[in-house]
Fold these 2 entries.
Entry 1:
Amino acid sequence: MAQVTIHVLPRPYQARIENGLLARAGAILAEILPQASQVFAVTVPPVRRRWAAKLVRSLRSAGFKPQVVAMPDGEPAKKLATVEKLAGKLARLGADRKAVLIALGGGVVGDVTGLLASLYMRGVELVQIPTTVLAQVDASIGGKTAVNLAAGKNLLGTFYHPRVVLIDPAVLKTLPEREFRAGLYEALKCGIIGDVDLFLRFEQNRARILRRDPVELEYLIAQSVKLKAEVVSADEREEGLRRVLNLGHTIGHALEAETGYGSLLHGEAVAWGMVAATNIALRVGRTDSLTAGRIADAVLSLGRLPEVKVSARKVLARLQSDKKTQNGVVHFVLPREIGKVEIANDVPERVVVDAVEELRRLSRRD
Ligand SMILES: NC(=O)c1ccc[n+]([C@@H]2O[C@H](COP(=O)([O-])OP(=O)(O)OC[C@H]3O[C@@H](n4cnc5c(N)ncnc54)[C@H](O)[C@@H]3O)[C@@H](O)[C@H]2O)c1
Ligand SMILES: [Zn+2]
């Protein structure tokens, strides 16, 4: 089993990554949270159907009396009204200050349950059991919780770390193909940012990864979690270093927003964003053509990405009004070498527009 410590104050915690871990969740929680009086697993119907019984069995055999609390599936459920409804359910079920909330699901469940745990009775214990690639390599690590507002995504949230993150790559076998691949781009991102070996796995073992070979998945999830944990441990609140995790996200977010969050999954938008960032790095002389080619190939060989049909000018305008913009200057995370990135704030507008137009060309289906 891989164990990764996330060093945050006042209390560091661990992420454990192992195939089959879900069946041992009860025993682990009995060790970490022996005082837990009530345990509530928050989940969505598709995950409940496939994985809740296994978790409940494991909790029961460790002496807990777990209850499963369902919320609606999908990004539209990531809103304050869902948090309020869940809090009402918890109160009716008699949840007190010693309750433990388990988030069993993807990033939506993790974000909503995290926010709920930070608010219910001014804060109860939280355990993350992420069930998508995206949630396993990214959303469950780092303590960010949020819901969306009509005015924008993730505008209402807290920093609230779980007591432990239990990652079982075996649960990914029921994940829809497109969700699975979309999450892989975030893992590949970790390789490009700071883990050459992880990147090489994508180059060399791609077929096995796409077949969801459990050994490959365990490796790439563990390495991605390690990288995110290192960055978060050094920079919990995103002042500096944590920004490197935004590789592909500057343009990715703009593409998501410009397409109305309809045609691209987040990971797919990040994939296009990484291709664009690589193209920009090449054009402004921050990387060489060999490195740029390897990165673009690694991204594009994971599967066909949805077509990009947006106007490059509109993408640029969005970037300039994005919340991550400082004083009107857009910061880009640019790859230098495999495993090394840098932040640039001097990319000419023309270069950005050209890079987005290049995405349109690359993605055209003919
Ligand atoms: N907190 C953070 O730091 C952070 C970081 C990145 C993303 N996020 C958030 O995460 C969210 C996206 O998360 P996501 O991509 O996991 O989407 P998601 O939670 O909507 O899950 C995607 C779909 O997969 C289904 N599903 C989940 N696990 C499954 C399984 N094992 N088998 C079958 N189906 C399964 C879900 O029911 C859902 O329909 C966004 O809201 C994003 O803002 C948060
Ligand atoms: Zn992301």
Entry 2:
Amino acid sequence: MKNNRRNFIKSSAALASLSVLPTSIWASNNNQMLRTAHIGVGGMGAADLNDIASHKSVEVVALCDVDSNALKAASKLHPNAKLFKDYRVMFKEINNLIDAVIVSTPDHSHAPASMLAMELNKSVYCQKPLTHHVSEARAMRKMAKDKNLITQMGIQVHSFYDYKLATLLIQSGIIGKVSTVRAWSPKNWGYDGPKPKGSDSVPENLDWNLWLGTAVNREFKDKLYHPGNWRKIVDYGCGTLGDMGVHIFDTPYNALELDVPLTIKNKCRKPNGFGFPENNEVTYEFPGTKYTTEKLKWIWQDGSGAPKNHKDLKLPNKEKLPLQGAMFIGEKGRLLLPHFMELPKLIVDGEYVDLDLSELEKSGKITNKPVRDYGGESYLHYHQFVDACLGKDNCTAPFSYSARLTETILLGVIAGRFPGKTLHWDNNLAKFKEEEANKYLDSPYREF
Ligand SMILES: NC(=O)c1ccc[n+]([C@@H]2O[C@H](COP(=O)([O-])OP(=O)(O)OC[C@H]3O[C@@H](n4cnc5c(N)ncnc54)[C@H](O)[C@@H]3O)[C@@H](O)[C@H]2O)c1
């Protein structure tokens, strides 16, 4: 199976390097503009394009989308960019004009597109979750390291004030060592219904074969996959955990300096071979770190009604919990981190305690201020990537970090195939002790 992926990357890269001019790298680009190519420019890709292009040193040279409507809309804003529907053709034709690649496709195409870009020595900004399979996350991390490439995963809230503040507060020991994290989202990127029958004709604006890419072939069904709803389907997305979990796990993962877990259990319905469960309760156990007790327990709940009542989640004055968020439970108190655009809140002995931020602000560790407007902060993470490509900054969610976070998320997704069963993860072998779960770590790449 692994050979399949390698073959895809190597053979596509070999074709690309046949392009007329030699492969470009940033250092050989004389006009000092970072030349970006964007794969997937509808949905979040449009926002990614906007935030990357808002950097004064970016020149958008290529737009690629399998949906000609998305491509048309993006090209109106960037009329000089070359247009493609197949990223392999894009690399084959203009590899030498591209310095950095932004991948904003559905999850199943993240690794094929990003790995090909990295094979060709491009810097890569890839949307979250980094990959669809654990094996791909490991391969992406390794390639980025081996080639020493600038990389960033698209978890833009990582660079928001509130999350950076929560990280510093936890690491300052404000609630002592943390024993448990509870995180929740009532969003539902699952599908409990039966596999739909029949097929619909593919709209003229969509190239369905390219949309499927390396993933399992299926007949097209209107509104079931494209756009957006692929998240609910196991062959293309990663369910609610892969969608919201990555954002909400990020701060605790980062703040507590966690690595991959020891055990994972998902309480959900039985697998139906098509859609993700609409409700999940995933319990992870992590090895301890300097910020946690001997082990750390992590409970994630999603779907309608999440989270269930629990004493750890009780707020002072009978306040309602934020719709989505995370609660850190420590020896000396709790820290609530709403998702998103709200300050973290400290709770000690059942009462809120005002945060004194003067020392932290003086320390210079946080440079931005909270802006209660998404666009006022969203560009930070993208500009950090561009600046890192220009040698002026470092990425804070490079693949060395985000592939491990993604692996953790995907282990919870796999545990959903074995409801109620505790799976044991061997980090060194990259295998479950439960042999039956190992086949979900990878998937063959379809030729397309
Ligand atoms: N960071 C965030 O806050 C955030 C928010 C939303 C989505 N996302 C992520 O962005 C990605 C896209 O999600 P979305 O909601 O925009 O999905 P979407 O289905 O709405 O849009 C995906 C776009 O990619 C195009 N596409 C699909 N396959 C392609 C391919 N092989 N080559 C080129 N283009 C291709 C589609 O035509 C479409 O324009 C996902 O990974 C998702 O998790 C991140």
